Amino acid sequence: MTRVVRTRAELREALAAAPRPIGFVPTMGWLHVGHRSLMQRARADNATSVVSIFVNPRQFGDPADLERYPRNEARDVEICGEEGVDLVFAPTVDEVYPPGFDTTVAVGAIAKPLEGAARPGHFDGVATVVAILFSLVDAERAYFGRKDYQQLLVIRQMARDLAIPTEVIGLPTVREADGLAVSSRNVHLSPAERAAAPVVHRSLMAAADAWRRGERSADALRRVTRDVLAAEPLAVPEYVSVADARTLHELETVDASALLSTAVRFGPTRLIDNEALE
Ligand code: AMP
Predict the structure, then answer these.
(1) Would you state the CATH architecture of domain 3-171?
(2) With contact defined as beta carbons under 8 Å apart, do 137 and 48 qualify?
(3) Annotated catalytic residue 35
(4) Could you read off the pLDDT of 133-170 as tens digits, one per residue?
(5) Is the CB of 28 within 6 Å of ligand 1?
(6) Is the minimum distance from the CB of 198 to ligand 1 under 6 angstroms?
(7) In whole angstroms, what is the distance from residue 55 CA to residue 182 CA?
(8) What three-state secondary structure class fits 65?
(9) So what's the pLDDT on residue 24?
(10) Distance from first CA to last CA of the chain, Å, rounded?
(11) What's this model's pTM, rounded to 2 decimal places?
């Protein structure tokens, strides 16, 4: 049976009795098959599985974006039950950030390019909430999706630097049959935008194919991605990146491993995706 707790005190009490190791999956709810894959690993690898559901206001730059973020807690708890999750932590904003809260966790260079440049303050919000959640849950392992690749690197850096012993594990992106990365934000796509959205993955695959055929110029790979995106009128690219997969510095030549990533707008909806070249 999945137990739902809402306060720090209830969480502490539930965890005191929980068998170890603990596997933790932080989410913002509107759970989907991508989240399910993280829960399944958390459950398989650990004696206790914990999911948090918290739409974190601090990681949203735009109040309208926060406002329209989809929510359905009853359905989320049902999904956690189906996946055999032991404990759901669904706190209020005040429970996570009590009155007087005044600390920000700001990760350095790895948080600066790409999503960090496009969404000022976003990773401060992410690092701050994950530091709090890691501290409250005190899990042996935590599971994140590689769909948010830079987020994964930011959280690894944060946990290492703050001496948080939770091991940060990254898992593959779960996709729809047509290649679109599953995301809570996909619900906002109009039928026409939804039909167009697989171009994001297709554009990255085209560049990955070029790389496999021997193309090593990062600019040529960016151009392949941009050309595929340009053929879809509903897709408005924000950035196309070919970067070192560890530092996220933009590359001129792809010698070793690289991360191909892009952010693309479809109307008001912003989608991100990436593909590792290795
Ligand atoms: P979110 O609820 O969007 O904050 O995501 C919570 C966690 O689920 C993050 O670690 C995401 O990277 C991960 N996630 C989101 N979408 C997917 C996906 N399609 N495949 C795998 N993991 C995902």
Answers:
(1) 3-Layer(aba) Sandwich (3.40)
(2) no
(3) yes
(4) 999 999 999 999 999 999 999 999 999 999 999 999 99
(5) yes
(6) no
(7) 18
(8) helix
(9) 99
(10) 41
(11) 0.98
Distance (angstroms) between ligand 1 centre and the Cα of 145 equals 5
Cα dihedral sign, 62-67-72-73: positive
Which of the residues in the chain have pLDDT under 50? none
Helix (H, G, I), strand (E, B) or coil at 32: coil
How remote is the CA of residue 136 from the centroid of ligand 1, in Å? Answer: 21
**Integer CA distances (angstroms), 163 to 2, 20, 131, 158, in order:** 30, 20, 11, 8
Nearest-atom number in ligand 1 for the CA of 38 is: 22
Spatial separation of the C-alpha atoms in residues 189 and 133, rounded to whole Å: 31
Q: What does the domain layout of the chain look like in residue ranges?
A: 3-171, 184-277
Distance CA 276, CA 259 (A): 5
182 pocket-lining for ligand 1 (C-beta < 6 Å): yes
Both tokens of residue 129? Answer: 């909430």
Please give the CATH topology (third level) of the domain spanning 184-277: Pantoate--beta-alanine Ligase; Chain: A,domain 2 (3.30.1300)
Measure the CA–CA gap between 133 and 126, rounded to whole angstroms. Answer: 11
Q: Could you read off the pLDDT of 12-54 as tens digits, one per residue?
A: 999 999 999 999 999 999 999 999 999 999 999 999 999 999 9
Amino acid identity of residue 33, one-letter, is V
- Choose which residue among 53, 54, 144, 148 to substitute to test ligand 1 binding: the one with the highest number of ligand atoms within 8 A of its C-beta: 148
Alpha-carbon separation of residue 114 from 100, 103, 159, 249, 260 (angstroms)? 32, 24, 21, 10, 11
Residue 145: CB within 6 Å of ligand 1?
yes
